[in-house]
Amino acid sequence: MKNFSKENKDDLYGLLLGPLLSQDDGIDAETLSNLALNSLKLASLKRNVPIFSNLLSKATINLQRNDSRLNQNIFGCNFKNPIGLAAGFDKNGVGAGVWNYFGFGFAELGTITWHPQRGNPKPRLFRIAKEKAALNRMGFNNLGAQKFLKTLEEQKLEPPGHRPIVLGINLGKSKITNLHDANKDYALSLELLGPISDYAVINVSSPNTPGLRSLQETEQIKKLIKTLKNLPNCPPLLVKISPDLSNEAIDEIALVSKQEGLDGIIAINTSLDRYQLKNRIIKTGKTLSQESGGMSGLPLQKRGLEVINRLRITMNNDLPLIGVGGINSAKSAWERITAGASLIQIYTGWIFEGPRLVPDILDGLVHQMEINGFKSIKEAIGSQEPWK
Question: Which sequence positions are flagged as catalytic?
């Protein structure tokens, strides 16, 4: 059987960036990300210019998979496949017009706040290369909701429902806004950006904005959901939760999500847990236990699977789940889907494995579906069928 997670050593991405991504030192992780985003920004703005359209068309040949068995309609959105780009990479939406060329079925842009903010002091993003993980304490650095809208308008995107890819927006609280007024802050962003979004996400689980995670508490999240759901033309609304919640808190937020009419749950965000890596020394010369910020990547794979399993049982399949955290292969994607996730998202795994990860996952999913006799990806969701 084909090993769908094996890195293609002949891949240009691996040849050029492999040496950089295989070590903690070298080019600063945030600098490297910004270089990539600047290229994506240019490609998105110029995607209809022949030289760029030709390059992007060549990318689709290698990276896209058009298989109707992977199609789903979830909370009114048509997903061509279940693989999405997680929030955090394209914070300002500069690549909104080109993510489909990389094979994604959807992309989540942001996190976006109402007020522009620089985020936390640099350095604030670190590779943990050997363990295929990252540590970030970015602090919702972004240009603000109003600039975000202009950025998307400049790319001349089709309206929601008519795009080649589903685009979600991930909303956070501005650091300067008092927690008591958090619902108003989120509402300002959603009121402005809702009309251009296929869906929206309430991010109350980042560990890098002081007090933000307290908004996951029952009364706080109820107040926030009610405020946003009452906005005119509110798009499908989801909440993104922390891996560091207790099982009881996960059950409670699942119940609240159902009662308040949310359209789905995204699990999980980055973690303050160091997962047996407390004494791991990173580029700063300090151990992970001494550094602030949320960890992402492979060490979160087990916890991400546990939370999806928990939510599936608690929710009894009443709400769509999106699984994220440590997914870096077709096998880990299949396990998250068969545990109950309708969709999955990748970010850190995509950085380490490269663009080939998307088609490799999709090929692997189709192969598993064929082995199990599933006619569509929907039949795999929550089936508990093991990877074969």
Answer: 206
